[in-house]
Structure formats: C-alpha cells, structure tokens
Write a structure and sequence with these properties.
The protein has about 450 residues and is mainly alpha-helical. It is built from 14 helices and 5 strands.
C-alpha cells in the first residue's frame, strides 16, 4: 500500500507528468490521431523536463553565489528555501502531506468543473510545498487525522483555483491574451508588482524596448546580457568573500575568479535551457488543453509555473532579479535594525520570483514598474517569511522557512486565526472561502472563467 501511495505522490508532484496527462486527455477529447496524441503528450513532458533541467543548473550555480555573499558580509540568519523546509517537514508530516496533496488536486478539479474558477493548477511541486505548509500550520493549531487532511486538501484545492484568478487580468497583459494563468504560489507578489507598476509606470517604456547602441547590439541577445550581468555579481561576491575561502570551500582549487566567471556563464546556460523548455511547453500544451476546455472542464485554463512567463519579457527577468535581491537586502537590514529574525535573501526565490515580479511590473508600468514592483516583491520576501516562522509549529526551529509570498500569507492567516479562535476559526475561514467560490456563479452566472477577460 505504501508503495502505491508513494507512486501516486511522485506522479502528482511532478509537473511534467501532470502536463503530459492533461495534454493526453485534451488530445483524446479532440479526437486527434494516435501519432498526434503521442507527440502532443510527450512534447509538454520533455518541455517541462528541459525547464526543470535549466532551473537545476540555475539553482546549482546560485548556491556558491549565496555562500560567497554570506561569507563576505558575515551574515548569519534564516534562509527561506521551500525545498529545505519541505525536506524537514517530510520527516514528521510525510503521510499528512501526501494525503493533502491528493485531496487538494481532486478538489481543484471539482472547483474548476463546478464553479467559475476554471483554473487547473499544473505546478505539482508547488502543490506539494503548499501541502507541507498546510499540514504544518494546521497541525500546530491542533488538527489531526482525517480532519487535518480534509481541511488541508480543501484549502490547497481552493487556493489552486483562486490564486490564478485573482490576478488573471495582469497575466493576460503579460501574455498578450494567451490562454494560460499563473500557477505559482508567489502569485500575490507578482500581482502586487503589477499593481505598483500601474501606479508608478505612466509613460515608462517596456523593458523590451530599451534602446541599445549599435556597438552594444550583442546585448540584445538575452543569454549574453544575462551572462554579463551575472558575471559582475559573481566577481564582486568572490572579491568580498576572499580568494582563500572560494578556493578552499567552493571552487575545489580552481582560481576563484575563473570559478566566478564559469559559474556566471553556467547560470546563463541554465536560463537559455529554461527558455527552450518553455517554448516547447507552450507549443504543445495550449492547443491540447483546448480539448479539456471543450469536453471535460468547459473553458478550463491551465495555470503553469512562473518560469513559463520568462519568454514574454526577457530583459525584465534580469531587471526583476536584481531589483528583488536589492529589496531583499534592504528588508534584511530593516529586520536587523528592528531586532527581528534576520531573513537572508535567498538567491533562488529572488531569481525566480523577482524575475516574474519584474515581468508583471513591466506589463503595467514598463521599466519603472519592473524595477519598483520587483523591489517591493523583494521586501515581501524578507518580511513575510519572518512573520511566518512563529506559526510553523515544530518546523519553526529548522533554521529555514518557506520562501514565497503565498505560502507566507496563507500560513500567517491560518496560524493567527487558529491562535485566536482555535479550530472554530479555521472552520469559519473554510466557510468564507466556500462562499467566495460559489458567489460568482450566483450573482454573475456565466460559463466563462472569472477575471479571464480577453481584450480584442
């Protein structure tokens, strides 16, 4: 039995398999010939594996950069990292997390079928992370057994449908009306960035329209400009960390500055692989998903990983990362002066979430929106994880925490409601969420997804 449950869990937490499965169902619904079903199913799987491979290269090369910065500036504190805190959670909450994941996916599909929140969340590893968070927070409140699994699964499934809907009007600006939604649990940070962009970006040109002198035309190549930008980061970090530390601890004897340059170039390679994977996903998944939208869950919209949006504004990716990281440093300093828990800027969340915040800020406010919106996102990635730590129960002592905005917001809300009103407060919160899901179908009945208004 454990082997079967483990197999199901491993399938559900793999976005590649989820995308392939939904593409397969969609193509069957469209009655495509067998060879097109096969190629259309394999395409999104390979595309996502390419995306994941590129992300792996990025994460691998961000690790030494983070260590050099921490060493160079003598920083110690809590590093937000979803993978790290999840690995700790699995040791004490493994069965609960797995069960919440399965129930949450089922509830997401039911909500998409029965309500106007027709967003199917396909980023399985983020669903897994959220299941871990919910099991930790609800467990700390006092939920156990079936009650923990049912309520955890409900909140996971509900947020999987609600979070893409909240900012879909911004997502449509980013994608120029492509039929996809944001399926990443830092979505609130992206929507805040887009909102800020709309306030501060009047008259600011898009990051993709930045004029480059003819002599610097090579910078229009995103891979090259990313490599050069990151080279500055790595070389500076190697200088402040010191040659001895980099040589002994990180580079395995390689010259520290050669190591820094190679790491920066490898980082750029990872980004290029991500772009290639994204193009493959979009080429096959969106046409196949039309079958689900027509036959299985009418008008369903796939909610996909944040990296899928990188190709829509590639210059904003770099600007967003840099601005978000600076925001994270400022947030860390503010926490230090205030005597709070020191949240060290995690390079992984600041790259992926900061880049996406830059893209969303750019969609509403151009270059100014990308920079300021991503900077605010960086502040959120510092302050919110600090506020989340006290409600994580037995996971709050692991010297790490969840790094993305949605995790922190949901964890803080559930934790504080449970603290003041115990289980009753969580029951009432579940009722409020249920009402939010049902009301649009009552007051504005339609077969169209909520907030998915495509402009002509």
């Amino acid at each position: 039995m454990n082997g079967i449950l483990s197999f199901i869990k491993n399938i559900l937490e793999q976005p590649a398999f989820l995308m392939g499965l939904f593409a397969f169902v969609g193509l069957i619904a469209l009655k495509r010939p067998a060879h097109k079903v096969f190629s259309g199913t394999i395409g999104p799987i390979i595309g996502y594996l390419m995306l994941a491979a590129g992300a792996g290269v990025i994460v691998f090369n961000l690790d030494p950069l983070a260590k050099m910065i921490q060493k160079g500036f003598n920083i110690t504190g809590v590093v937000p990292n979803n993978e790290a805190v999840t690995s700790v959670a699995q040791k004490v909450l493994g069965v609960e997390t797995m069960s919440i994941l399965v129930v949450g996916l089922a509830i997401n599909l039911i909500i998409a079928r029965a309500t106007r929140y027709k967003y199917v969340f396909l980023t399985g590893h983020h669903s897994f992370f959220m299941a871990c968070l919910l099991s930790a927070v609800l467990g700390a409140i006092g939920f156990k057994g079936i009650e923990l699994i049912v309520f955890g699964g409900f909140f996971l499934g509900a947020w999987s449908a609600i979070s893409p809907a909240i900012g879909q009007k911004y997502t449509l600006k980013v994608t120029d009306n492509d039929d996809i939604a944001m399926g990443h649990f830092s979505s609130l940070g992206y929507y805040v960035s887009a909102f800020i962009g709309s306030l501060v970006g009047k008259g600011s040109k898009s990051t993709e329209e930045i004029k480059v002198p003819e002599s610097l035309g090579f910078l229009r190549n995103t891979t090259i400009s990313t490599a050069l930008t990151m080279m500055i980061f790595y070389l500076f970090a190697a200088m402040v960390a010191g040659s001895e530390y980099v040589t002994k601890e990180l580079s395995n004897g390689q010259n520290p500055y050669v190591f820094a340059i190679i790491s920066a170039l490898n980082f750029a390679v990872g980004v290029a692989i991500v772009y290639a994977g994204v193009r493959m996903i979009l080429a096959d998944l969106i046409p196949a998903f039309q079958g689900i939208a027509k036959k299985v869950i009418p008008n369903a919209i796939p909610a996909v990983d944040c990296a899928v949006f990188f190709t829509y504004a590639q210059t904003a990716v770099v600007l967003g990362f840099v601005s978000s990281f600076i925001g994270g440093v400022v947030g860390m300093l503010i926490l230090g002066f205030a005597g709070g828990v020191l949240i060290i800027p995690g390079m992984v969340p600041h790259f992926f979430c900061g880049a996406t915040a830059g893209i969303y800020g750019n969609s509403t406010g151009g270059k100014r929106g990308a920079i300021i919106g991503a900077f605010v996102n960086g502040l959120l990635l510092s302050f919110l994880p600090a506020l989340l730590l006290p409600v994580l129960g037995q996971l709050g002592f692991a010297n790490t925490t969840f790094g993305d905005v949605d995790f922190a917001v949901l964890g803080i809300v559930l934790g504080r409601v449970g603290e003041f009103m115990h289980n009753t407060g969580v029951y009432l919160l579940a009722v409020v969420v249920l009402i939010v899901l049902i009301l649009p179908s009552i007051f504005r009945p339609s077969d169209k997804p909520i907030n998915h208004i495509v402009e002509d």
